[in-house]
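Sequence in, structure out. Go.
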Amino acid sequence: MKKVLLTGASGRIGSRLGEQLLNDGFHVVGLDLAPARTRHPNYAHVQSQIRRKDELVKSFEGADFVLHLGSMMSWNPKDNAAMFEANVNATQLILEAASAVGVKRFVFASSGEVYPEVKAKTLPVTEDHSLNPTSFYGLTKKIGEELVQFYQTQGLETVILRFPHTQAASEILDPESFFSGPRFFLDSKIRQMEQFGNTQVAEYLKSLRGDGSPKMILQCGEDQKPYMMHIADIRDILSGVALAMQHPNAANEIFNLEPDDVVRFEEALPKMAEIAGLPLVKAYMPGPAVHYRTSNAKIKSALGYQPSHTFSAMIEENRKNSEQTAL
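Output:
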């Protein structure tokens, strides 16, 4: 039985990936700061901060693959030091441990924030686009990629996957979701702006509250163009990671792990608001609209990746669940 060391094993994506690997017959060792979310005879969990290589090596012994999904994501400058520790220093220690035990392949979860896609010079964004991150999170992922590529030169077989915005269908209509909350819900967006210290935008958004009842938000840029971006279904991300882990063509490559479809907010939000039973308001955010498209041609051609869960299908999944609940 092959052994997989999975970091971020208690996270939104990692916990689901761990379950899939177990169902596929792998022995999984999960590493996370949080307690285990998985219970299975072939699963072992290590709840620990990543501070020392010698402690990591014990967990890595006998591992065939390392899937490094663990990271910290924040756009709050107060978190920069902690984010550097989690995304850069910890990555270096994990790479060192993986090299020490001789794993067959190391898969690193990077991000489209390394470009970043929202400021791309050419569309669609391909893997050879220049990397000029504008967020500290994107910077830590870029440094992480550079560390991975360094260890590749030392003999470690690696794969870098640049993740898109990723959601489960159940999250897209959840106002408390880390991603979908401030992306689609007015009050969640206001809280996010207040946390960022952007009081001017927060006050503008508060003016859209009207009677104060909950509302969904259709975000547009100053140019009045509605947002357009990729949002992947977690299920497709899991299949992409599985391919990266074992496909021979993935060795020492970098891939955008994107869905085929792009989410046009002016088309998606009215349907979502109808299902949620909430009014929809339009908000003109500072700067140009988030409006990009990223290519997945390389991973489809090289690995046969076929994303099968569209954002429209995720919306309809919520509609069906809503109708069943109403019965």
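Check: The domain at 169-228+262-293+310-326 is CATH 3.90.25.60 (UDP-galactose 4-epimerase; domain 1). The first strand starts at residue 3 and ends at 7.
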